[in-house]
Amino acid sequence: MFIHFLAASGFEYAFEQSSTSGIAVCVALGVLSVISWSVMVTKFITLTKAAKENRRFLEAFREATGPLDPFENQITPKGAPLFSVYAAGCRELCIHLLGSAERDELFGSRVRSAERVTPSQMDGVRSSMERAVGEMALRLESRMNFLATAVSGAPFLGLLGTVWGVMDTFSGIADAGGGASLAEMAPGVSAALVTTVIGLLVAIPAMFGYNYLINNVKSMVLSLDHYAAELQTRFERRYVDYGRKLDTAIALNAPDPTDIPPRPHSEPGMELEPSLDPANPEPNTPEKSAEPNDEPAPLKESKPEIEPDSLFPLSDDDPDDDDLRVPDDILDLRAKDDNSPPPSSGNQFRSPFKR
Predict the structure, then answer these.
(1) 256, 306, 310, 314, 325 from 321: Cα distances, Å
(2) How many CB atoms lie within 10 A of CB 163?
(3) Looking at the predicted structure, is the pLDDT value of residue 113 above 80?
(4) How crowded is residue 151: how many other Cβ atoms within 10 Å of its Cβ?
């Protein structure tokens, strides 16, 4: 029916009038159309089956009592992208829990008796699931580049055939010489325009198919991300220890409170902070006057110190040295009577030890 429509619309006539270059462009566009349609059909079937298998696996996973039960029962649905993410996370978790991902008759008991993993080990499980999501996204988007090429390249390839055909038509008219009527130009122009029509017939279905399929792929990749987050939450709830081991690690890395660093030695030009007295929490800083005094202190007159022995040199060999000393009773009386008038200068005896 479609072929009869093309024949009735003049497509058959235009194709018969095409030159060699126009036929080559039409053949290339036909091959591109076959590739794009095969990609669209196969990708549509694959995504439809994957969505169906994802729903079945997600129901089985949420009905299980534990997150590792489907893995223990060796459930392997075919064509379910969610199972690829689940299997990658389970294998990595079992390696941290049991040391291997082998499943045997004692797998369930070994998992239940195993110690919980640390948060750092859970980071490895998260990385493996993210890697599985990326690999599955690449697999779902495979061969979509053919559709993008058909959408963007088919119209330009048809336009190339049209321009080439028009060029050949005008070249033939020029070689024939003289004026050419519209009846003579019509076959060449129609043959040139047929390549543009074929190019659009290839690009338009590929554009609609590409938009539909790429939206389905994006939604499926988003569902993979959501499922990876859900699986990680269930793993952390069941198999990750955020309490005892984390507190132990913090206690091991905490500094010793009794380890007080020594005070640095003071160097010239460097002042240390004042020490605190346990009884007085305020620092022992010297008291400062309320009003600052910027005037320099007055200079004191320096008096030469006179040694007592230099005035009256005494020697142990002098027998009269005892007569020159002041008796102790006179000094005591002098100290008691402070209000007594000083003796006259003629009778005053001044000790060389008193200035």
Answers:
(1) 73, 20, 14, 7, 7
(2) 13
(3) yes
(4) 20
Band (pLDDT 50/70/90 cuts) for residue 87 is very high
Helical spans, DSSP H, in the chain: 2-8, 11-16, 20-63, 69-72, 81-98, 107-113, 119-140, 144-176, 182-239, 244-253, 308-311, 328-336
Domain around 45: 2-170+186-251
Q: Give the residue from 30, 40, 29, 28 showing the smallest Cα distance to 206.
A: 40
Q: For the chain, how many structural domains are there in total?
A: 1
**C-alpha–C-alpha distance, residues 336 and 89, integer Å:** 105
**Sign, Cα dihedral of 63, 68, 69, 71:** positive
Of 40, 74, 42, 44, nearest to 60 by C-alpha is 74
Let me know if residue 292 belongs to a domain: no
Give the count of alpha carbons within 13 A of 331, CB side only. 8
Cα–Cα distance measured from residue 18 to residue 26, given in angstroms and rounded to the nearest whole number? 10
pLDDT of residue 351: 47
Q: Could you say which DSSP state residue 191 is in?
A: H
Angle between helices 144-176 and 182-239 (to 10 degrees): 170
pTM recorded for the entire structure: 0.61
Burial of 281 (0-12, 13-18, 19+ CB in 10 A): exposed
The beta-carbon contacts of 25-30 under 8 Å, at least 24 apart in sequence, are 25/157, 25/158, 25/160, 25/161, 25/164, 25/195, 25/198, 26/161, 26/194, 26/195, 26/198, 28/157, 29/154, 29/157, 29/158, 29/195, 29/198, 29/199, 29/202, 30/198
**Separation CA 110–CA 112 (nearest Å):** 6
Amino acid making up residue 15: F
